[in-house]
Amino acid sequence: MEYRKIENNGDELSILGYGCMRYPNKNGSIDYKRTEKQIMTAIENGVNYFDTAYLYPGSEKTLGKILKNNNMREKVKIADKMPALTAKNSEKMDEIFENQLNRLQTDYIDYYMIHNLIQFEDWEKLKKNGILEFVDEEKKKGRIINFGFSFHGNLHHFKKIIDDYNWEFTMIQYNYVDENYQAGRVGLEYADSKGVGVIIMEPLRGGMLVDKLPKNAQKYIEDFNIKRSPGEWALRWVWNHPAVKVVLSGMNEEKEMLEKVKEEFKSKIKIDCTSCAYCMPCPRGVDIPTCFSSYNDKSMFGGFKPVGMYVFATDDKSAAYKCKGCRVCEGKCPQDIAIVDELKNVSKTMDRWYFRTIGKIVKFIMYR
Question: Per-residue confidence at 197, pLDDT binned at 50, 70, 90?
Fold first, then answer.
């Protein structure tokens, strides 16, 4: 196992972390024995970073039990998350955090983050709710070691959040298809330039870069002179970036092959938007980069997930249907995109009433 160093705290983290969102399942519940075997095998092979969250059913409790029973707590770093929309006041933050410590059977959390920041306004609201006072107090007690945030918005909001606080780390989505999606490569390098450690999620795009490749993309990989699985190619692409601080060699020809694979995905892109956010702010509050990236996501990968992410990210306030056609944005776009027309196309696909109704129901259940 190779390790990368987080410069601002000196931690050596395994280049491969263990995501605890989905454990092996049996008869509708977590299969403890299989999960324990997987986690222990990961630790034995050098994995030392385990990522869980308050909203992952049974995840914290299972991880805590396994680490406790096998005396492994001090050998690993635990990352956990507080849901942004639930942290409404200091009392609620205290309640959630105490529950997390109890579930994990630990006295501290190594990497604690706000779960799923999307807009700078989300962070502003959390500050008003007392998040900074909560974190400062828990850091003094030694119960939070490092503080960060996971992010699913656009580059404009990501930079504003990074600049607003002395973060130890952040977690962003990044893979060879999503190089310009959400925070993207520019956000990765920007965070690194500020000394913020960057953790990568979705390097395999939820498995889509493994078992749902277009036929031509699959053939490029199969015909390449170096034989590796699609998953390994995807991981090597991420690790090859200096900001991720993992050193790999011999990537020149490999990059050419992956460029061909990437082109297969890009051929399905509807709008050639790089999420630069020069079009922002919109007078009507439309989050144009998020609207376009979600629409492209839907076209490339299909399924309900891109729509769900879009509904959560725009929350009726910044959705495509809010556009009134003023075209202020179009004069700012370096890609010369017909933004108003494209927003209409986005709205036809993504703003259907039943999508938004389902989104509101899910939000109510999750954050009531």
Answer: very high
| Of 195, 159, 188, residue with least CA distance to 173 | 188
- Containing structural domain, residue 312: 288-367
Return phi, psi of residue 147, to 5°.
Answer: -120, 135
Residues 50, 20: Cα–Cα separation, whole Å: 7
Scanning the structure block, which residue is given the tokens 């942004």? 84
Q: Which residue has the higher pLDDT, 255 or 170?
A: 170
Task: Choose one of 172, 202, 232: the last residue of a domain.
Answer: 202
- Locate tokens 């179009």: which residue? 330
Contacts of the segment 20-29: beta carbons below 8 A, 24+ positions apart: 20/50, 20/51, 20/52, 20/53, 20/56, 20/59, 20/62, 20/63, 21/51, 21/52, 21/53, 21/56, 21/59, 23/58, 23/59, 23/62, 29/58
Please, which pLDDT band fits residue 247 given cuts at 50, 70 and 90?
Answer: very low
Residue 270 lies in a domain: no
Q: Judge whether residue 179 has pLDDT over 70.
A: yes
* 292 and 163, same domain (yes or no): no
> Do 41 and 153 share a domain, yes or no?
yes
For the segment 114-148, what is each residue's pLDDT rounded down to a tens digit?
998 988 999 999 999 999 999 999 999 999 999 99
pLDDT in tens, 283-328: 999 999 999 989 988 888 888 888 888 888 888 789 999 999 999 9
Task: Report the number of distinct structural domains present in the chain.
Answer: 2
Is residue 216 included in any domain, yes or no?
no
| CATH number of the domain residue 194 falls in | 3.20.20.100
333 & 198 share domain = no
Is 275 inside a domain boundary? no
Q: Report CA torsion sign: 188, 304, 29, 368.
A: positive
Q: At what angle do helices 288-301 and 339-350 cross, to 10 degrees?
A: 60
Last residue of a domain, one of 202, 233, 263: 202
Only one residue has tokens 């519940």, namely 29
Both tokens of residue 18? 């263990």
DSSP summary character for residue 328? T
Q: Are residues 307 and 196 in the same domain?
A: no
